[in-house]
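We include this case.
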Amino acid sequence: MLLSLSLAAGGHSGNACGRIGDRYSNARLDGPRGYSEMVARPSNLLILTVVFFVALAGTIIFGYRAGQHARGLRWENEPIRAWMSVPLIAHTHHVPRQILYQAIGVEPQPRDRRPLRMIAREQNRPAAALIRDLENALARAGHTHPAPPGGKVP
């Protein structure tokens, strides 16, 4: 009662801040649900925003990984062509390069990116014979792949 009389007379309640403005007029600083509790609790919008960005990041990451895997499957099933290099064929079929170089009778060189067509020309062999030797080496290593459409080697 004394408190209400002093407030009516233009005084204040002993709390320097009183109420927290119009928006939070029902929340008092000294009440059971104080200001610190109100600030510490995150809003639903903040939680929803964080969940959305975590889901978006997960979708992008797993989508990228699925695309990489699909491209790897595509290259693994690609038939050997004359434009391919021995390291590319070894990488896509998960076979050591030395096995393939040995199958075509070439000494392995670091950073050898010559296409099969150039290696065949240097050995005075048709590219089809070189490709057949590589396919046999892959079959011995346990890796097979489909023949090119039409059965012709470019």
